[in-house]
Amino acid sequence: MMMLGCMGRTAILMLALFVMGWWLGEPAVSRAEDPDYPRITGPCNCHFPKDHGPHPDYKTEWWYYTGNLKSVDGRRFGFQLTFFRSRVLPPGAEASWPDPKSAWRAPQVILAHAALTDIDGKRFLHAEEMARAALGMAGASIEPATGAVDIFVKDWRVRITPETHELRAAADDFGLDLDALPERPPVLHGDAGYSLKGSTPERSSCYYSFTRLKTTGDIILNGEALPVTGESWMDHEFSSAPLEPGIAGWNWWSIQLANGSDLMIYLLRKSDGTFHPASGGTLVDARGKAVHLGADDVRAEATGSWKSPHSGAVYPERWKIFIHPKAGDKELSLTVAPNLQDQEMRTPGTTGVTYWEGSISVEGSMNDAPVKGVGYMELTGYEKAFDAPM
Amino acid sequence: MRQFTLFLRLFNWFTVRMLKRHRWRVLTVLLGISLGAAVFTSVRLSIGASLDAFTRSMDLIAGKADWTVTHHGGRVPEEFVAPLLRAPGVAAASPILTAYVHPAEDRGSESGMEAPPFLLVGIDPILDRAVRSWGVEGGGPGRISGGTDLITDPGAILIGKPLAELLRLKTNDRLPLERLRSAQKFRVAGELTTEGLGLAEGGKIAVADIATLQEFTGLIGVVDRIDILLKPTATKQDVERIRSLLPPGVVLERPSEARESGKMMIRSYRLNLSVLSFVSLFVGMFLVYSLIALNARARRRELAILRSIGATPRMIFLLFLTEGGLFGVFGWLAALPISTFMVRRLLSGISGAISHLFVRVSIDRLNLDPWEIALSLAATTGISALAAYQPAREAMRASPREAIDAEGGDGAERTSPRRLAALGALLIASVWPISRAPSPPELPLPGYIATFLLFSGFSLLSPWCLQFVGTRVPPLLRRIQGEPAYLAGRYVRDAGTRTAISVGALITAMALFTALATMVHSFRKTVDNWANESISGDLFIRHQMSETNQYRDPLPEEVVRKLIEIRGRGGVDILPYRRIPLRFGGHPYHYEALDMDVFRRRSRFLFVRGDAARALEKLARGEGVLASEVFASKTGLGVGDRYRAVVEGVAIDLPIVGIARDYRTQGGVVWHSLRALEALTGKREWTGARMFLSGSTEQERSAATENLRSELIRDCAERYPVAVTTGKDLRGEIMRIFDETFAVTTVLLLIALLVAALGITTTLTLLVIERKRQLNTLAAIGAGRNQLRSMILWESLLMVGVGEAVGLACGFALSYILIFVINRQSFGWTFIYSTDWSSVLMSLPLILLTALVAAIPAIRLVLGYSPAMALKE
Amino acid sequence: MNASPGAAPLIEAKGLTRTYRMGASNVVGVSGIDLVVASGELATLKGASGSGKSTLLALLAGLDQPTSGSLTVAGNDLQKATEAELTRYRRDVTGIVFQSFNLLPTLTVLENVCLPALLAGKPYEETRSKASGVVEWLGLRERRDHLPSQLSGGEMQRTAIARALINDPRLLLADEPTGNLDSRNGAIVIELLAELNRASGRTVVIATHGDMADAYATMQITLKDGAIHKILRK
Fold this sequence. Notes:
The structure holds three protein chains of three kinds.
Chain A: H1 10-24, E1 60-71, E2 76-87, E3 108-118, E4 123-132, E5 138-142, E6 149-153, E7 156-160, E8 165-170, E9 174-182, E10 187-188, E11 194-196, E12 204-221, E13 224-239, E14 247-257, E15 262-270, E16 280-284, E17 290-293, E18 298-307, E19 314-323, E20 332-338, E21 344-347, E22 353-366, E23 369-379
Antiparallel strand pairs in A: 1-2, 1-13, 2-3, 3-4, 5-6, 6-7, 7-8, 8-9, 9-12, 10-12, 11-12, 12-13, 14-15, 14-23, 15-16, 16-17, 18-19, 19-20, 20-22, 21-22, 22-23
Chain B: H1 2-21, H2 23-62, E1 67-70, E2 76-77, H3 81-86, E3 90-101, H4 105-110, E4 118-123, H5 125-128, H6 145-152, E5 156-159, H7 161-167, E6 174-179, E7 182-191, E8 205-209, H8 210-217, E9 222-223, E10 225-230, H9 236-245, E11 251-253, H10 256-298, H11 300-308, H12 313-357, H13 370-396, H14 417-436, H15 445-481, H16 483-495, H17 497-534, E12 539-543, H18 557-569, E13 572-584, E14 587-594, H19 596-602, E15 607-609, H20 612-621, E16 625-628, H21 629-635, E17 642-647, E18 650-660, E19 668-673, H22 674-681, E20 688-693, H23 698-717, E21 722-726, H24 727-770, H25 772-780, H26 785-826, H27 837-864
Helix pairs in contact in B: 1-12, 2-10, 2-12, 2-13, 2-24, 10-12, 10-13, 10-17, 10-24, 12-13, 12-24, 14-15, 15-16, 15-17, 15-26, 16-26, 17-24, 17-26, 17-27, 24-27, 26-27
Chain C: E1 11-22, E2 25-37, E3 42-46, H1 53-60, E4 68-73, E5 76-77, H2 83-92, E6 94-97, H3 109-119, H4 124-137, H5 153-165, E7 171-175, H6 183-200, E8 203-207, E9 219-224, E10 227-233
Parallel strand pairs in C: 3-8, 3-9, 6-7, 7-8
Antiparallel strand pairs in C: 1-2, 1-4, 4-5, 9-10
């Protein structure tokens, strides 16, 4: 079990929760919590494959895949495919629906983001989809018999079976058709998945990851299918609690080192620029043992930035990260560089949020031994602070 | 250039100064012209606004859609949305469900007037984003917060600003909408921004989640249509593949088709009304003609002088032609304020008529289309110049010799009344064959041409008639009324074409009035008769707001069962029917399947063609169909031709066995046997039913009707969206709609009548003025004031008499053309000819009075001259 | 200047005839007129009413065309002339003064005088100053901007004369110019016409009943029943 600490993979949690709050029309930061939704206040008791499936009573949930791929001729790609489930009405609200009711009345909306970074071609493509979970347009479900999980919106989907994760997405100018096989068992963050993300116990989620998935399949670019292989990272998290006030955004990294270690770091940025004490991360060793990292265990310095010509936001894209966990004996010193400067996601059609999410290359040393790796970095809150009035 | 300045100078010296001297005459003529021009302009602007509003609304509602999936006469099952979303080449697919809804009573009374129905649009805010543009006031870019409210709150709607103003609503107010017997309260979640959907229907629109609309209307499981936006890379094969996904009956078509057929109907209506309003302008011609002709005649001497000092005939011609044109221009300018006033009044009448007749329009603004302005200016100036043409030509012929007072002809009449009458008779004779000529669709061009020929022909007859009356009548008159009356008769005989103009105006007025009275009377009587015969029934039950929502929704199964149960009790005859709106070669019409057994017992078709008995037999057996007059005239099909259509997915191919009258709005009707339809489709679906109750006395029947009505309301209308109406109310409603529709036509003809009346007064006055020398001579040789007065009175009487008689004849002929030619060619229906004798006979003394009233200022003018004036000059 | 014998005659008529249709019958205006009038003559045209005076004058003025015979004035063949040619003739060659003045009632004195010149295409400013001169010469300066309705008979006739002169016509015709005037004004008008004949050598033909012009006339033409009765030369 991975203890990833209070925040853990809260990066995306916060993003998604914020996104949901945004979309719902209320600044998510201002509401403490919605009393009508079930809360997470203790160990999640995750059982698989059941908990790979949706937890429909909770407000927000997502299945999040990123990865670095190479084609046969050595071209490098990064990809992202995320499915969000958002519950727009508290459970029980359905009782007050009219009878007979329309088939369109559904409490769930499914959103999806997809992105492809053509590193050598210096191109970044992204797309989004959204539909309500009704009438076969979108859905999130689990087959009780086989345990297969299907999350889809229109013709994008992820299908999670005991064998593999099938990822499919088709946008106007690119497509993904990948199979990701978990190389390690899922890592539960926090206390059996219960991960705190704020100052009070209610601000929490259930959260686990597959830190390494061997990925094969095709990337469709310019109408042609390109066979690729590589490594992916998957996050699955659900919660009903919104973001804590005072947070301007966060920075998040997932890194897969060549020596078998995986690293996840999450830094919550306050409006004054300092990092919230709830920040932290997780370090997984080559055998799969996970160590939680607290805010004191991580030091990060931005060493270079890039200004987006699209949105005008300035993203700190180059970092020096120092990990010195109190527990355990690993010491990491890493330099992080983006594989392409412009990997800015703009999603006006679904969440309205603009953030940077892209493939990175990493090198440095672990316990004085040189290490190299790949991964993904996410930078949010640089276009507008999250609690800025709209 | 010098020629031009010379002309202008001469025009000013000669024409303008003279016009300034006779202000009253000039103003009267300008008034007449301006009325005509105002009517013409207002009508065109009003219809233009309707056309504009309709097109814009359709476009705004259609959004960016490339294609649309639709089911004519029905709705599209919602399960096709997902497959369409996944189809290759499809960038976005958005289902849409619309219904016209009524604010519930208490809301209406709050604002002090009956709130009209408005369009409620149901969409999926998520899917719709790519297809239609709309926004919520106060929402930021990228935020569709109002959109989510729609999804999460089953009672949330967004309303357009104009609607918010009309119903006095703010965000978070409650708006109850009529549903079944109660009102469902909606919450105003926000206001629509002024773009896209927020502008459609003049802004009197509301948006709700599609789920909300389905639940409110009871239309669970279906949508109106699915609008599709293709990817830029989509190919023809992609389009075909989309088509192949659809079940039979559901088609893929361009969104513009519905819009284009609506536009076509409005455009043809515009042409019809334009011509009608043109009559007012045309009648104004008389005024210009008479004034300019008077000027030319009175100043003949001056014209001779001009010629004698070197003016060319062309210059003189242009002087008068320009005078005419000037009247046109100034008349048009004077029309502008009148138009402003008129348009406001006409706008609601015309948009109402169009909404009843063709498609719903809701006008929010008036476009001042520069082309329309130019057209009305051109028409007015053209008409006036045309009116001046003949006097100008006549003036051109002024011989310079006349300047010298030489002996010789003194401008004797060029054309004899006999020749004119012959020409007139020829024109009148040509009216019949021309009116029978085939007309372009929906534009009764031959009818209009025939009308103008009729007016011209009868007007040309008048000199001869006057001559006839003037010859025969005076000897009689002398015996009755003495010398003045005799002189009056002689004058009438000899004055020839001069008086013919006055009489022409009279004939026009009389004819218009007679024709109008006859047409309206015929029409009303026919429709009333038809309503009582063919739309018989004591109670009617159908889907709520079925007309406005185009009869697409059948009665719920439970209601049908209830009706069958009622039938089983006995004492009540139930006549169910299924009505489906379809299109035949682009023409919208209704297909109606009736229970023929009950129909034959209880109701009647008013046959226009075909053997009634045999046709009904075949109809009852399902071996043929009956077509309405309108359907037959629009499609060109007749008795014996085959009717082919696809109804509810089933092909029908049957002969037409008869043509019957029908005055429903929105196209023609084809009748079929309900039993035959049910056998073909295997479905029992009723759009509605008529109920006939028995009872030996009127009272018994009413009581039974009332009881049954209460029962139906209690058992059906409470739970299902149906409306139960008494036959009396329904037929009253039909008459009211027709009255409203024809109100516009009536107004137009009345205005033309007014202009004609003005024409009469002006021309009579001018006639008298022209003769002042003669009258003064008479006074000088001893005629007393009373005798002069009497003479003029008799002249007026004789002229008016001739005018009314000829006008009456012309009017009857005109009414015939209006009813059997113009109406038939523009709308497709005919009426049973019926004259309103009381109105016509009453009009005779009224018009006589108008003419006599005109004589009064003339008389005063005459008697104001002193006899000594006869000696001067 | 008096007539100079041997110069080409201004007016030459041979067998000049003009008949009208009135209803069903033919009325003879003039018939078989042979006439020669030299340039510079002042001729009086006499005869009872109905003798054809007005007809002959109308023909000379180009207001009417002969039915048969020939009529040449200042080299213009009036018998063959087209409507346009006649218009030009009336404008440029003759000036006519009527019995009933025939001024245009909506034009001022000055405007009436300018009109023939403007119709001939002359520029406005130039015409105006010329007309002003003529109007002044005729003693109408204070009446320049008055309408005919504000003038006395004599003033109206003088205006008419001014108008007849504006285009420098070779032939000046007058139809009973004194008919509507009192004797004093009549005398003034005759004197003016005589002055114009004397001073500029203009040919003048006056149709008149009375004998006021006899003193100045160089020839006297008498008509009877549409034909020449006698011609007297001084």
